[in-house]
Design brief:
Immunoglobulin-like; 5-stranded antiparallel sheet; 1 helix; 22 strands; disordered C terminus; receptor; signal; cell membrane
C-alpha cells in the first residue's frame, strides 16, 4: 500500500498497486480415468487485466504447448497435435482469474507433470499439477496350464481390473490355432452373446454370470474334447484401451468314464516235491517198486 501525505503530514490517499498476485494449483496428484475428463486447476487470487495477460500450459518434459491464452483470447491454433480439440479453458471463468484446463478423452500418454505459467507485464507465477498414470485396463489370468481328461469340465481364468463399468466392456474368448482365431465366447453390450459362438463351443462354453459384475470373466468349458487342447485368449476391449491374457489346456488324458475293467482272479500255485524221488528210481531199476 502506498500512502501520500500533505504538508501537515496527514495522509490523504491510499492506493493498492496492481502488482503481486498469488497463483493456486492442485494440492496433490490427479488420477484420471482413461477416456474421461480431468480438470487441471490454475487460478489467481483476484482478477487480472486480460489484455496484458498471458497464460501458458505445457508439460514439464516437453516444449509442446497444451494450451495458450494470449492477447485477451484463447489460442487453440498454438496447441500441439496431441492436445488439439482435447484441452480447453473454461471461457466464462477466465475473467474471474480462473485459468484451469479441462482435458478430455484422457489417454495413457497424458500421464505426467504439467505447468501453468501466468505472465503479466510486471511478473510471472507458475504452478504445477501431476496427472498420475492414467488408470489402465488390467487383465490377468493364470500362468500354469490346465490339465484335464477328455469329458471333464475345466475353468479358464480371466479377471479384469478397471474403473470402467463392466457393461461398457466387450470380452471375447478365442481359441487360437493354425487356422486362425475361433470365437468361443462373447460378452458385449452388457450381456452374453451365445449366438456368436462357433458351433464347436455352443452350449459347452459359458461365463460365470454372477461373477461378471466383479470383473470375473473366467470361462467354464464343459466336456473337454481332444481338439480343445491348446491356447485360448481372453480379450477385453473398452472405448479407449484393450488388454488380454491367455490360458492353455495341456495334453489331455483319456477319460476313465465308461471304461469297464474285467478282473480275473489269479490262482496260487504251490510247488510239490516228492522227497523219495531218488529211492523210487533206484527201486524201479532193481524191480522192487511197490
Amino acid at each position: 500500500m502506498c500512502l501520500f501525505f500533505n504538508a501537515l503530514g496527514h495522509d490523504f490517499m491510499s492506493l493498492i498497486p496492481v502488482v503481486g498476485f498469488l497463483l493456486h494449483g492442485s494440492a496433490g496428484p490427479l488420477t484420471a480415468r482413461l477416456g474421461g475428463a480431468v480438470l487441471l486447476p490454475c487460478f489467481v487470487d483476484r482478477p487480472l487485466p486480460l489484455e496484458e495477460l498471458e497464460v501458458d500450459w505445457r508439460r514439464t518434459d516437453s516444449d509442446t504447448i497444451v494450451h495458450l491464452f494470449q492477447d485477451g483470447q484463447s489460442r487453440p491454433e498454438s496447441q500441439g497435435d496431441a492436445y488439439r480439440g482435447r484441452a480447453h479453458f473454461l471461457s466464462q471463468e477466465i475473467p474471474k482469474g480462473n485459468f484451469s484446463l479441462l482435458l478430455d478423452g484422457v489417454r495413457t500418454a497424458d500421464a505426467g507433470v504439467y505447468k501453468c505459467v501466468v505472465y503479466t507485464e510486471q511478473e510471472q507465477r507458475e504452478t504445477r499439477v501431476e496427472i498420475q498414470e492414467a488408470e489402465r485396463l488390467v487383465v490377468t489370468g493364470v500362468d500354469e496350464p490346465v490339465y484335464a481328461h477328455a469329458g471333464e469340465d475345466v475353468t479358464l481364468s480371466c479377471s479384469v481390473d478397471t474403473h470402467v463399468n463392466v457393461t461398457e466392456l466387450q470380452v471375447e474368448w478365442r481359441k487360437t490355432d493354425d487356422d486362425g482365431d475361433i470365437l468361443v465366447l462373447l460378452y458385449a453390450d452388457g450381456e452374453n452373446r451365445p449366438e456368436s459362438q462357433d458351433e464347436r463351443y455352443s452350449r459347452r462354453a459359458e461365463f460365470f454370470t454372477e461373477e461378471i459384475p466383479k470383473g470375473n470373466f473366467s470361462m467354464k468349458l464343459r466336456k473337454v474334447r481332444t481338439e480343445d487342447k491348446g491356447e485360448f485368449r481372453c480379450e477385453v476391449h473398452s472405448d479407449t484401451d484393450s488388454a488380454s491374457t491367455t490360458a492353455r489346456i495341456a495334453a489331455l488324458g483319456e477319460s476313465l468314464e465308461g471304461l469297464v475293467l474285467t478282473c480275473i482272479p489269479a490262482y496260487l500255485i504251490l510247488p510239490c516235491v516228492w522227497p523219495f524221488r531218488d529211492v523210487l528210481q533206484l527201486q524201479s531199476r532193481q524191480g522192487t517198486y511197490h
